[in-house]
Each structure stands twice: as C-alpha cells, then as structure tokens.
Design goal:
36% of the residues lie in helices and 16% in strands. The radius of gyration is 23 Å and the shape is globular. Strands 1, 2, 9, 10, 11, 12 and 18 form a 7-stranded mixed β-sheet that branches. A 7-stranded mixed β-sheet has the order 7-6-14-15-16-13-17, with helices on both faces. Strands 3-4 form a two-stranded antiparallel sheet. The protein contains 17 helices and 18 strands. Helix 1 packs parallel to helix 10, helix 3 crosses helix 4 and helix 8 crosses helix 9. Strand 1, helix 1 and strand 2 form a beta-alpha-beta unit. It is of the alpha/beta class and 556 residues long. Bound molecules: flavin-adenine dinucleotide (FAD).
C-alpha cells in the first residue's frame, strides 16, 4: 500500500484519472469492517470506514433500548466472546483499548420436572459429580468426550486462520495452496479423518446418541449445535455447528469457554475502532453506501446514498453478500455463476433476541436464592432435552413460532457492573425459532406473544422470573434485517451449513477474501471463519488487499 505521505486528501474525487481520495475504503463499520480498517491503516494505507448507522459495531453493539430507563444498557444482539484470535487482540493492542473479558461460569439448566445440571468448561471433577446426577455412564464418558473435542479442535482450530484454497482450480498458485494445506495436515491419521468426517456430516443428536444416554445431558450439550441455525438438532451438519462454537477460547486456555466483554459487545467494537483510529483510519457514521464505483471492471470507490462519490485504490466491503454484490456491485458486473451462487446463498435463522432488565436474579426452585450464585454466572439455558429443541424447530419450519422456544440465556451483570445500576441485572435471551420468513414483516404482536411464552418457560423453573422483569426489548428477524443489515435475519450473514463452509464461503472460487471484481475485497461474516465476533474475515481481507497492492507495486 502507498504510505500516508504519498496519498491525496481530497474528499471530492470523481473517479477520474486523479489521485484517489483514499488508499482504502471499508464499507460497513461492524467489527469485521473495523478490523479490516485497523490492519489497512496499520500497513500505512490512508483508510476510511463508512458505516450506515449512527454508530459502529453492527451486530456487536451495546445499546440503551428503553428511553425511559437509559441507565439500563444491553448487549442487544451478539452477547458473548470466544472466537477472536489472540493474534488480532495482540496486533491491534485491544487490551489497551478496553478489551476485557470475564470468563463465563457453567452451563446451567433447571428442568421443568425438577432438578438441574451444571457443566463446567474447566472442571472435570465437578462435571463428573453433576452428570452423575443423571447418568453414571455419561459421567464416565464426559472426559473422553472433552478429549475427543480437544483433538478435533487441534485440527479445526488452525483451519479457522487458513485461507481456503481454490479447490479444483489447476492454476499453479491454487494448486500450490491446496498442496500446502494437505502438507500442513500430513499428520492426520485414518481415525482423525474419520472423526472430522463424522463431525462434518452428522446431526448433533446422532453424534450425542453415540456418546451419552441421558436426555438431560444430551439437551445441555445440544445447544451449541443449533445456535443461529435454521436446522433442528436431527439435521445433518449440526454437529459441525457445535464444533464451531466449541473451539474458541477467551484467552484463559480453556477450550470452548466463552466470556462477557465489560461494557457489552459494543465495547469490543469500540476497542477495535480505537485501534483503527490509533493507526490513522477515519471512521464516518451516518454514511450509507449505495453503490461500489467501478471503472473498466475495477473497484474504484463508492457512491453514498446522498450522491457523494469517494474514490480509493481498494475497496473492502463487509456487508451481507446479497447487499455487497447484488445491490452494490450489480448482477451485470459479475460472472453469471457467481451471481447464481449469491442468489442461492442460504440466510435464514428464525432467531429472536429478548433483552430484559431484572429487579432481581432468577430464584430457581432447584437451586433457590436471589443472591448471586454460580449458576447465574454462565449460560442459563432453556433447552432441557433434544425433543424439546426439535419441537421448537419443527413448529417454526411448519410456519408457526415455537410454542416453547429454546433459549441460550446469560446474565452478564453477574460480573459486569457497567451495564445497569447496582442491585439490578440485565438478562439476555438468545432464542429460537420463529418462521424463517419473519424477516419480511415486523410480526410485532406475535413476537410479543412468543416472548411471553419464552418467559413463562423460565418462570416454570424460577417462579420469581416474570415478576422480576422491569423492561423488555424484543429484536426479531425483521428488525435484524432492516435496522442492522442482517438479510433474512441470519446472525452470521449466512448459514453455517456444510455447503456454505470453507472453500464455499461465500462462493466457490472466491473464498480467499477476493471477489470477481479486481480491487474489491470481502470481509464479512459470510467468508471463511465467520460468523461470530472473530474478526478473522476482516483481518484476512485486509491482508489480501495489502498483499495484492505490494505485488502490483513490485511489478511496477
Ligand atoms: C442476535 C445475535 C446474536 C449473536 N450472538 C453472538 C455471540 O454471542 N457471539 C458471537 O461471536 N457472535 C454472535 N453473533 C454473530 C456475530 O454478531 C456476527 O457474526 C458478527 O457481529 C458480524 O460482524 P460483521 O462485521 O461481519 O457484520 P455486521 O456486524 O453485520 O456489520 C456490518 C455493518 O455494515 C453496516 N451497513 C449495512 N449496510 C450498509 C451500507 N449500505 N453502507 C454502509 N454500512 C452498511 C451495518 O450497519 C453494520 O454495522 C450474533 C449475532 C446476532 C444477530
């Protein structure tokens, strides 16, 4: 990339032969766009981020949704961290910019028929005691299961940071990359490859049936297989979704552990924005991009919805693929195969986020008390058994919101004292499912009834729950799409289904963070390693842009 000193600073470029306004323009100020900007700026590129909303962060956002109670802030969409790799934390000095994670406590499920279970990320002894309450056989199987997952994480973890090769291409560069990947995995044996194959092809229900017998234990372990997914636990591929959510760590060395960012997920995005600014990037909010500016088939900048044109040597877009390519680049400027791939991109999920302000902590019949206890500090689940989860999906697939939805609940204020006044709590419920087409209409009343039912489910096991709710905020698929750009309401810019992973994400031939348009790079969660707040797409897209510019400069 050109250095800051060699670039023009005009803000009224026209896309002609003059110097570009910026070295790099990043479309979208979600966490991936910000990571891309931070890396680009760090390389010396004069970088501009354009964000449509009045604040950055995208799906990593902390907001005060109740105008009459601004002292309560919620982490409105995404809610826990695990997938952001140490490389990014270190490169961008995020610790210096407020990145601070409280590792979560155990998974907790209180059962409607009585009793409860806790599962710890890091305590085999206590896990054995907890699981023994439901099955001695399952308790004995648990350490083997943990070791099995850890073995798979050793294979899958490094793949998250691997740029997928262009499988099937005979170009020397692509063949070299494919061979390099094979070489890096040369130590895999027959057994490991079989395990990876199982993980990639099985349903989470079938996989857990191979390991455990107790419905309660299987229910607790199934949640990660269906988070954000338009698929019930009996659908092939859900075993991989579980792995995707189980291979990160929050920096405390415990695999699969998740944590709460102090100040909510918006503080993660703010830390990255600070890093970007520290490196020299400029960030503009209320700046909606309408089109990517093309000249002779190359990306040359953007056109904002107010008509302003801004030019750049490279453009990185971090938006949903339908918006980035079909709306902003235009079908006529893209190869037909690629257009078809993006049109067929699956982007459903039927997720509803319910954020609550509580006057007191849930008082569980199985574990009584409203004072803070360990079971309040992790995932406070409502996913008691596999058939319970499956029923919720089947109802939504048949066109009706779940009667008894499942929920991955958390109470970040168990640790984080910055979100609400002392003595109160924030609880965030990540729930599924409503029908996949609820992104087309607000469904306000049905969502309120759905939230009532969700709250009733918790009230059955914690009878003070309903009466403790001071405020509630419901964000359904329509709002996710229209306010946050999450087309179809999918939380990851596209489903984590097998045909949309690795070299297929977002389309075959374009999984290396480049696009069919020279000069345009792709950094959204719809690329490999997304979704989730992992920053990897942003980092990889910036690296690709920087590498290509350097190569071009060398050739010149
Ligand atoms: C309800 C929910 C819960 C989740 N929970 C978790 C979780 O707990 N942990 C986790 O790791 N992940 C979670 N995720 C997933 C994770 O939040 C996303 O994968 C990730 O935040 C996406 O980041 P991104 O930067 O790729 O895209 P986004 O965050 O979507 O950012 C894209 C940005 O582009 C902006 N934009 C859109 N159109 C334009 C335009 N025309 N011009 C300019 N800007 C535009 C948007 O406003 C947005 O700021 C969750 C997501 C949701 C929705």
């Amino acid at each position: 990339m050109a250095t800051k000193a060699t670039t023009a600073a005009s803000t009224t470029g026209t896309g002609g032969a003059q110097k570009a306004d910026y070295d790099a323009i990043v479309v979208g100020g979600g966490h991936n766009g910000l990571v891309a900007a931070a890396y680009l700026a760090r390389s010396g590129a004069r970088t501009l981020v354009l964000e449509a909303r009045n604040k950055t962060g995208g799906a990593a956002t902390t907001e005060a949704p109740w105008p009459d109670a601004p002292e309560f802030r919620v982490t409105r969409l995404s809610y826990v961290m695990s997938l952001l790799p140490p490389t990014i934390i270190k490169d961008l000095r995020l610790d210096h910019h407020g990145y601070k994670i409280f590792p979560m406590g155990p998974y907790y499920q209180a059962f409607p028929e009585g009793g409860s279970i806790k599962l710890y990320a890091d305590d085999a002894k206590r896990n054995h005691a907890e699981v023994s309450k439901w099955s001695k056989k399952d308790a004995d199987a648990m350490p083997r299961w943990d070791a099995w997952l850890a073995g798979l994480a050793e294979v899958l973890g490094p793949l998250l940071l691997t740029v997928p090769p262009n499988l099937g291409s005979r170009k020397p560069r692509d063949l070299k990359e494919t061979l390099r990947l094979a070489w890096r995995n040369k130590n895999l044996n027959v057994r490991t490859i079989a395990d990876v194959t199982r993980l990639m092809t099985m349903s989470i229900a079938d996989l857990l049936d191979d390991w455990f017998e107790s419905e309660q234990v299987k229910g607790a372990l199934a949640v990660n297989g269906v988070i954000g997914t338009w698929a019930g636990p009996y659908e092939p591929g859900t075993a991989y979704v579980m792995a995707h959510h189980s291979i990160g760590d929050v920096g405390d060395g415990h695999l699969g552990n998740w944590g709460f960012q102090e100040g909510g997920m918006g503080a993660v995005a703010d830390a990255i924005a600070m890093a970007a600014r520290e490196n020299g990037a400029e960030i503009r909010t209320d700046a909606r991009v309408q089109k990517i500016l093309l000249k002779d088939g190359q990306a040359k900048g953007v056109i904002l919805d107010n008509g302003q044109q801004l030019t750049a040597k490279v453009v990185v877009t971090s938006l949903h693929p339908r918006t980035a390519f079909l709306d902003h680049v235009g079908r006529q400027n893209l190869p037909d195969d690629f257009v078809a791939d993006i049109e067929h991109w699956k982007t459903r999920s039927g997720v509803v986020k319910i954020n609550l302000a509580l006057a007191e902590l849930p008082d569980f019949t199985a574990d009584p008390g409203t004072s803070l206890q360990e079971h309040h500090t992790g995932s406070v689940e409502m996913a008691p058994t596999m058939p319970y989860i499956e029923r919720a999906f089947i109802e939504a697939r048949d066109g009706q919101a779940a009667t008894r939805p499942f929920s991955d609940g958390v109470i970040p204020t168990a640790f984080d004292k910055t979100l609400c006044p002392d003595g109160y709590h924030i609880m965030s419920l990540f729930t599924q499912w409503v029908p996949s087409d609820w992104n087309t209409e607000p469904h306000t009343e049905e969502l309120a009834a759905y939230a009532d039912r969700m709250i009733d489910c918790y009230n059955e096991v914690a009878p003070n729950f309903k009466s403790s709710i001071l405020h509630r905020d419901i964000v359904g698929p329509y709002q996710m799409e229209h306010d946050y750009g999450l087309v179809g309401g999918n939380i990851f810019h596209g489903e984590l289904s097998l045909e949309q992973l690795f070299h297929m994400r977002p389309a075959p031939g374009f999984a290396d963070y480049r696009t069919p348009v020279p000069g345009l790079y792709y950094a959204s969660s719809a690329t490999h390693a997304g979704g989730g707040v992992c920053g990897i797409p942003g980092m990889q897209a910036a690296r690709a842009a920087i590498a290509d510019r350097r190569k071009l400069a060398r050739r010149r």
